[in-house]
Design brief:
64% helix, mainly alpha, 3 helices
Length: 83
């Protein structure tokens, strides 16, 4: 004949079966849902957000090219002034 576990025994059993941090106590690992998507992952699904990312990527590339051109121009002017 089985006896019912006391409250303290149930607490100890649940704490050892499911360590701290597991919010789905009593469920098997395969039954737990995956992690929630982050706000950035949700936004990346939107087509307008991807286009906005592309625009900023192009602006960044143009900025880098302008900075490289500026550095070479300054180097050229410095070298020519020393010539």
């Amino acid at each position: 004949m089985r006896r019912d576990l006391s409250d303290q025994e149930q607490y100890v059993k649940s704490a050892t079966d499911h360590p701290a941090g597991s919010s789905y106590v009593g469920r098997h690992r395969s039954e737990r849902p995956g992690p929630e998507p982050t706000p950035l992952e949700l936004m990346e699904r939107e087509p307008w957000f991807r286009r906005l990312q592309d625009v900023y990527m192009v602006l960044g590339a143009v900025t880098v090219l302008l900075l490289v051109a500026l550095v070479f121009r300054v180097l050229f002017l410095v070298v020519m002034s020393l010539w």
